Amino acid sequence: MAKTPTPHIGAQYGDIAETVIMAGDPLRAKLMAEKFLDNPVQFNKVRNMFGFTGMRDGKRVSVMGHGMGIPSIAIYTYELFNFYDVKTIIRVGSAGALTEALHLGDLVIAQGACTDSNYAAQYQLPGTFAPIGDFSLIRSAAEACEKFGYNYKVGNVMSSDVFYSDHPDNQGWINMGVLAVGMEIAALYMNAARSGNRALGICTISDHLITGEVTTAEQRQNTFTNMMDVAFSLI
Fold it and tell me: Residue 203: beta bridge partners?
């Protein structure tokens, strides 16, 4: 295919499976390849954004990092959907809780993603687009959480362009029942919608924006495997 490799992904067309499980941290993608895939082959190391393709329960699947924030995930998922014919992207990542009903290590399945980003402006819509996940993936992920016995909630997350805000105030989102902050999911869902494909975001609560509880960077990289169990069960 003439458009591959892309400026950001060094893979040839066909090197990447139709289903890709992504994580912001490329080392988490490497962990997934080592833990969940049989005979993984690395297809990308451009910018150290590692990507691997292997087998899982007889099915071909890829894993890849996507970086932090909407601009980064937007570039990688656009290229995967539009240049590599990827059909399904499942994001696994960390999130900050906005409700006391969630605790460190709990999972959030993102039914929808609110956002303060201007990313949707490119579509020139006559209103506000509501980015949502694929229902079949949402339902299957919830069923998997029940099967595994993992604590989880399904609902809205907030994808913000700002991590360090001059005026941090999450109360409005809390008032609207938003469960957590997951910075990248809105762009993932928009790219999936625009390309006619499927996407789902599954998050592990890594910190709590109400209680102040936090996990370490090492814990986030190496121990948030419950969401990976759920993601790989959807293949």
Answer: 93, 108
- The rounded distance, in Å, linking the Cα atoms of 163 and 161 is 7
Structure tokens at 72: 């980064």
Q: Containing H/E element for 141?
A: helix 135-148
Q: Residue 204 forms beta bridges with which residues?
A: 94, 107
C-alpha dist (Å) from residue 92 to 5, 172, 200, 210: 25, 26, 9, 22
Place of tokens 């994001």: 91
Helix (H, G, I), strand (E, B) or coil at 90: strand
Question: Which are the catalytic amino acids?
Answer: 207
Q: How confident is the model at residue 18 (pLDDT cuts 50, 70, 90)?
A: very high
- Cα-Cα-Cα-Cα dihedral sign, residues 123, 129, 135, 140: positive
The string of pLDDT tens digits covering residues 66-123 is: 999 999 999 999 999 999 999 999 999 999 999 999 999 999 999 999 999 999 999 9
The CA distance from 110 to 154, in Å, is: 6
Q: What is the dihedral of CA 186, 49, 106, 69, to 10 degrees?
A: -30
φ, ψ dihedrals at 192, nearest 5° = -65, -45
pLDDT at 1 over 60: no
Amino acid at 223: T
